[in-house]
Amino acid sequence: MTLINDLRRFVWIAKRNTRSPADGLSHDESAAIHLYTMEWTPSGNSLYAILNRTLRASNRSQLTMKPWFKYLKLFLTALAKLPALSSSSQSRIVWRGVKLNISELYVKDSYITWWSFSSCTKSLSLLESNMYLGQTGDRTIFNIETINGKDISSRSYFSQEGEVLLMPGTYMTVVSKLKPAPNLYMIQLKEIVPPSPLLEPPFYGKANHFSHLAILFLF
User: Fold this and answer.
1) Can you give the pTM of this predicted structure?
2) Residue 201 CA: distances (Å) to CA of 37, 88, 162
3) How far apart are CA 64 and CA 74, in angstroms?
4) pLDDT at residue 14 in the model
5) Cα distance between residue 152 and residue 99, in whole Å
6) Distance CA 75, CA 11 (A)
7) pLDDT digits (tens, 9 = 90+) for 109-164
8) What does the pLDDT look like over 41-68, one tens digit per residue?
9) Could you tell me the sign of the dihedral formed by the alpha carbons of 172, 178, 181, 184, in that order?
10) Which of helix, strand or coil describes residue 109?
């Protein structure tokens, strides 16, 4: 992949930081998760930012995704080995925030699909810090009841963030909306099983790792 500046150095750091992987992950699989969470300068040059822009693009195709296939296979195979948040004793509620008012895009009782990886947190208070949403300006907070979210906090470069990752193709219904304060909008989402699979699993014979979810895009 030549899309990412200074990629070789970041890969070296990720592999150095993940020498003792758990949960049956290989060294490379654990490093793939760690690499995804790392931050370039500026942040828009980060691997996760470029990958997710590609996944969200309206002209996404086999051609535009081809440079990512090897990394995605490794990354998604690693995520498939992690238990879904819904299969543990942890709360299924996670939070995500953006520094914009996008509430008009979410109509109550409608269905939406998030096509990119979506980083969430188990801690609402984390979003309130100035490093994330802060407490001024237009902000939208998502309260999400997840099925297939993966807790990657112990494998993240920023382990204190309590990061939960939603998979590409996460299908949700808009449960409710409210405006608890000026310039602050809150949207409640619930992940549901889509009418038909949106993705294919990263490896055959083990699709149960992702419940209904899968990983190769059906273009």
Assistant:
1) 0.86
2) 22, 21, 26
3) 18
4) 96
5) 23
6) 13
7) 999 999 999 999 999 989 888 878 888 999 999 999 999 999 999 999 988 788 99
8) 988 899 999 999 999 988 877 778 888 9
9) positive
10) coil
72 and 127 Cβ atoms separated by less than 8 Å:
no
Structure-token pair, residue 131: 């490093």
15: burial class by Cβ within 10 Å (0-12, 13-18, 19+)?
middle
Q: Which of 37, 67, 36, 12 is nearest to 161 (CA)?
A: 37
* Residue in 163, 120, 111 with CA at minimum distance from that of residue 142: 120
Write the DSSP symbol of residue 5: T
| CA geometry: angle 203, 206, 209, nearest 5 deg | 110
Domains belonging to the chain, first-starting first, are 7-83 (no CATH), 85-191 (3.90.176.10)
Q: What tokens appear for 180 in the block? A: 């608890």
